[in-house]
Amino acid sequence: MNIPNDAAMLLSFVNLKLRDYYKSLDDFCLDAGISKEEIIDKLKSIDYEYDINTNQFT
Q1: What is the per-residue burial (b if ≥16 Cβ within 10 Å, else e) of 29-47?
Q2: What is the pLDDT of residues 4-56, one digit of tens each?
Q3: How big is the chain by its Cα radius of gyration, in Å?
Q4: How far apart are the C-alpha atoms of 38 and 36, rounded to whole Å?
Q5: How far is it between the farthest Cα atoms of the chain?
Q6: In which element (H, E) is residue 42 found?
Q7: Three-state DSSP state, 24
Q8: Contacts of 18 (CB under 8 A, 6+ apart)
Q9: Cα dist. 3→8, 28, 45, 53 in Å?
Q10: CA distances (Å), 20 to each of 41, 45, 52, in order?
Q11: pTM of whole model > 0.90?
Q12: Given its phi and psi angles, is residue 34 left (phi above 0), alpha (psi -120 to 50 degrees) or beta?
């Protein structure tokens, strides 16, 4: 899976995938072969955090 490197593009990409295809961030990361911590850290750098209740970064 080609994952964007830019944090803003990553936010859009991950939220779309979570909304349309995956029931959790863990499922997405497992399928994409990427570290959950890597995504969380990159999106935290632009002040977004994962909300487990909505399954989105907000």
Answers
A1: beebeeeeeebbebbeeee
A2: 999 999 999 999 999 999 999 999 999 999 999 999 999 999 999 999 999 99
A3: 10
A4: 5
A5: 26
A6: helix 36-44
A7: coil
A8: 24, 25, 28, 55, 56, 57
A9: 12, 12, 17, 24
A10: 22, 24, 15
A11: yes
A12: beta
CB-based burial label for 57 (10 Å; 0-12, 13-18, 19+): buried
What 54-58 contacts at long range (C-beta under 8 Å, 24+ apart), as own/partner pairs, is 55/18, 55/19, 55/22, 55/23, 55/24, 55/25, 56/15, 56/18, 56/19, 57/11, 57/14, 57/15, 57/18
Q: At which residue do the structure tokens 């779309």 appear?
A: 16
Residue that has been written with the tokens 């959790």 in this structure: 24
Instruction: Give the pLDDT band (50/70/90) at residue 1.
Output: confident
